[in-house]
Amino acid sequence: MAGKPSKADKKIAYDAKLCQLLDEYSQILIVAADNVGSNQLQNIRRGLRGDSVVLMGKNTMMKRTIRVHSEKTGNTAFLNLIPLLQGNVGLIFTKGDLKEVSEEVAKYKVGAPARVGLVAPIDVVVPPGNTGLDPSQTSFFQVLNIPTKINKGTVEIITPVELIKKGDKVGSSEAALLAKLGIRPFSYGLVVLSAYDNGSVFSPEVLDLTEDDLVEKFATGVSMVTSLALAISYPTLAAAPHMFVNAYKNVLAIAVATEYSFPRAETVREYLKVGAHIN
């Protein structure tokens, strides 16, 4: 009967798996895994099964493996991953569309209660309305300065109350009240922090860009280059047509103002004569 693998054996197996994934996949999502439980992570793995692999591990081990593998293979692009391995993060290797995989990951968020000492990721607002609690529970509301009234034998909150602000730690009174109200204000799941694609690293916001967005940004860039080139009289491919047109306008203006003429100038003279005659 084989014994349990030692820590050294586990490290060797992990190292080999990460190296294999680095060689096999060119696209990676770096995700934050704060407050994500093992069952939730298992559901995410099942949801992504097919063309994606989720790999968690200690940052030091991942950094070491990536660094050594980069030296062995000569692929220095892998080194771009190392600065991204900060905090409680994991890697999702995929051969699918990065945007679609990111959207699939976002589906697996789980509601969570406000635990004492937890730093609130969002503002928590208690809505007005009947709480279903009997009048003996009013002490919770009084401690937190929440305006209430007794309506039909139950406590009713009169106005919306910002109970916890984003970034604040959850206190015992806030946690107890939210538990009594059955409010699970926070939701946790894997959050995409960065994307890696063939050595390039970019923020997840880039994944939301559509073709129309890219065309618009390109057109804006061309317009800025054109304006700058025209302002400093520097010929570029974008500015050249405008320069030729402006130069031609100047030649026409000189021809109209003097005796110098050429076919197009005569056409302009005729238009000016007709316009002057009409006026």
From TrEMBL:
Does this UniProt record's set of keywords contain Ribosomal protein?
A: yes
Looking at the keywords, is Ribosomal protein present? yes
What Gene3D superfamilies does this protein map onto? 3.30.70.1730, 3.90.105.20
Domain Large ribosomal subunit protein uL10-like insertion span(s) in chain numbering: 114-183
Q: Which CDD domains does the record cross-reference, listed alphabetically?
A: Ribosomal_P0_L10e
Instruction: Give any Pfam family that matches.
Output: Ribosomal_L10
UniProt record similarity statement: Belongs to the universal ribosomal protein uL10 family.
Q: What is this protein called?
A: 60S acidic ribosomal protein P0
The source organism is Hevea brasiliensis
